[in-house]
């Protein structure tokens, strides 16, 4: 098993093999994190690459007493956030077809559930985890990113607004629409218990 | 009771004082879940939820979706990961070399 301290020493001394070792050691976790944050494999790879270039450039400034993985991870997250901010500024799809519907009197038209399955029950179904991940990734980036930072990473709405350079009200609208769309996309996964 | 009969009752009920329609209910969900609804609004929201099965079920599924998304993502991160793709390793090493040359 690679000793992080000696790996850092070798990196600082310019050992090229150590850099490749670092890529192979943390690459899988960083790539998954970037894919989860961005929902796009190609953009995730770009961010991981950008992250390692930054690591290589700045390794001399790394404080030896700190945890190397946490440092690299922070660089990656910042690189992904930069990409998210760019996407947030772009025009957003409205996804009207995935929003709740109401009749002319403002009454909700909604499937009824006999019993709503628990999260455990949902994820026990074969392939459900992948279906849920795919559902998140299928949301337009401008909505998906807000939902990811708020509901999966657990930041509060004001923090998300700041992270994405959005107004608080725009962040709230995106969050609610993203959640409503996600619910709609996931309905088939809950479907077994629906009242006819 | 049939659903159409229930719908008629709902229409009549939501026009009563201290009641809100499903569409208005929708507009307060975010504040409700964040605990930011003023007391009176919250009472009206809760009252609507008591009498409207559609909104109750909607909100339950809405919350369950959020929770399921979070747990599925966390579980994915805990699973054994494949190795980093070779093309990415090669691309990073090439980019790093190009970056070094640029700085010289």
Structural class of chain A: mainly alpha
Poorly predicted runs of 5 or more residues of chain B: none
CATH topology of the largest domain in chain A: Arc Repressor Mutant, subunit A
Q: Which chain pair shows the most residues in contact?
A: A-B, 57 and 48 residues
Shape of chain A: elongated
Put the structure in a nutshell:
The complex is a heterodimer of chains A (196) and B (104). Helix content of chain A is 66%, strand content 2%. Chain A is built from nine helices and two strands, in the order H-H-H-H-E-E-H-H-H-H-H.
Fill in the keyword field for this structure.
heterodimer, A: 196 residues, mainly alpha, Rna Polymerase Sigma Factor, Chain: A, Arc Repressor Mutant, subunit A, 2 domains, two-stranded antiparallel ribbon, 9 helices, 2 strands, B: 104 residues, 5 helices
Description:
The complex is a heterodimer of chains A (196) and B (104). Chain A has 196 residues and is mainly alpha-helical. Chain A has two domains: 4-89, RNA polymerase sigma factor, region 2, helix turn helix motif (Rna Polymerase Sigma Factor, Chain: A, Orthogonal Bundle); 96-193, Arc Repressor Mutant, subunit A, CATH 1.10.10.10. Chain A contains nine helices and two strands; from the N terminus they run H-H-H-H-E-E-H-H-H-H-H. Chain A has a two-stranded antiparallel ribbon. The model of chain A has no long low-confidence stretch (mean pLDDT 90). By secondary structure, chain B is mostly helical. Chain B has one domain (3-103). Chain B contains five helices and no strands. The mean pLDDT of chain B is 88. The chains are: A mainly alpha (196), B mainly alpha (104). At the A-B interface, helix 2, helix 3, strand 2, helix 5 and helix 6 of A face helix 1, helix 2, helix 4 and helix 5 of B.
């Amino acid at each position: 098993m690679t000793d992080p301290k000696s790996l850092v020493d070798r990196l600082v001394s310019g050992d090229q093999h150590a850099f490749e070792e670092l890529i192979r050691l943390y690459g899988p976790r960083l790539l998954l994190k970037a894919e989860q944050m961005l929902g796009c494999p190609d953009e995730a790879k770009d961010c991981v690459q950008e992250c390692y270039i930054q690591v290589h450039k700045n390794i001399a400034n790394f404080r030896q007493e700190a945890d190397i993985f946490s440092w690299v991870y922070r660089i990656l997250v910042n690189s992904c956030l930069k990409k998210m901010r760019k996407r947030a500024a772009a025009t957003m799809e409205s996804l009207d077809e995935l929003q709740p519907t109401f009749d002319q009197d403002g009454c909700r038209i909604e499937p009824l559930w006999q019993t709503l399955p628990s999260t455990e029950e949902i994820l026990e179904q074969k392939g459900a985890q992948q279906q849920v991940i795919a559902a998140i990734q299928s949301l337009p980036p401008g909505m998906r990113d807000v939902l990811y930072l708020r509901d999966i990473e657990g930041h509060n709405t004001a923090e998300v607004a700041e992270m994405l350079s959005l107004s608080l009200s725009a962040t709230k609208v995106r969050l609610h629409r993203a959640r409503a769309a996600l619910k709609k996309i996931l309905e088939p996964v809950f479907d077994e218990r629906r009242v006819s | 009771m049939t659903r159409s009969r229930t719908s008629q009752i709902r229409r009549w009920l939501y026009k009563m004082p201290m009641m809100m329609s499903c569409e208005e209910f929708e507009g307060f969900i975010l504040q409700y879940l964040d605990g930011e609804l003023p007391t009176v609004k919250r009472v009206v929201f809760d009252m609507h939820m008591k009498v409207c099965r559609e909104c109750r079920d909607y909100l339950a599924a809405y919350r369950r979706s959020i929770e399921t998304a979070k747990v599925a993502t966390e579980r994915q991160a805990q699973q054994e990961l494949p190795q980093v793709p070779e093309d990415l390793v090669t691309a990073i090493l090439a980019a790093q070399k190009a970056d070094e040359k640029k700085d010289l």
